Amino acid sequence: MKPALKMWLQQRLKVFPGLLSSSWARRVLAFLGFLVIIYWYFSLKSSYKSLWYSGLPKGASGACLLVQTKQWKALAEKGELLLINFPGEEAKLQGPTVVGNGHIIVDVGKNNLWVSSLSVLFHLTSYFPLTFAKSTGVSTELHATAVMLKDGMVRTIRCLQFETSDSSRDCVTVREDHFAHRSRPHVYVQRIHITNPSDRVATFEIFSQKPINGEKFSSSVEKLQERQFVLSSGRVTVDNGKIILVVVATKKIINRVQVSPKSEYDETIFSVVYTSDPIDPGKLIDTFSKLRESAKKEMMELMHMINEDLFHSISRYGRTYSYQ
């Protein structure tokens, strides 16, 4: 080492003993050391946090879904919610999830309707009870489903990210609730609520699954005092060659909905389901006529009710079930 460089280092190193002898300097060094420890701690915690949340949904639609379901964790801890489906999470509920009230059962996952009568256990029909809302131009869609035990319903939340935007604030959300009414045992209700916070019009096709060719259900449009509904009728074959007749009256809705920017759309779709006891084929005409009149009468009552009257008591809702 050159003599000049050696002398320069010796002069600089002589400063440290004097610096450390000062109480003020020791405090500064201790404070700097404390900051280094804090920085290291939070950096490590952030790394663990990123690993913990690695399975949660990402992107604009993922951020939207997290906001829309932020209360679900608290409800689950209270025992008021069971998770069915959530991106990156393990479902807490196994098997089909259905809503029912002892007279009808709707399998929300498979879009099936089960009916019972006074003398027969539940039987599967070929009728499709659910209504769907589908939009075009969606680049990413994420959804989550849970059983709301306190309300006795199944709720699904969908977050749609369109191709024209990559911000979570522009994601369109669709909330769907399914439940069977308890005080009205023939009534099944589906609510669709669409929120469009973006600056563009969101267009949705509203439709139901059509019966497969050869199925035993047929439909027609009926009119009651300037209001229309769809009347479907079919049959379920049981033991001994007897038949259970099924009549379903469903509120008729428009097929295409345009949700304006910064606005919301809400639709309540109610269905009335009437069934017969097992009968001989020779009694079809008279029994069908009675069931149709009963379904029309209750549908007319529902059409004159406002939604608040139909939902004013939580205790009147049906229950949710899960079969392993």
Automatic annotation (TrEMBL):
Pfam families per UniProt: DUF2152
Membrane topology, from the record: Single-pass type I membrane protein
The keyword Metal-binding belongs to this UniProt entry's keyword annotation: no
Compartments it resides in: Membrane
Keyword annotations from UniProtKB, A to Z: Glycoprotein, Membrane, Signal, Transmembrane, Transmembrane helix
Transmembrane segments: 24-42
Keyword Glycosyltransferase on entry: no
One term under GO cellular component: membrane
PANTHER family given in the database record: SIMILAR TO RIKEN CDNA 2510039O18, UNCHARACTERIZED PROTEIN KIAA2013
Protein name, per record: Uncharacterized protein
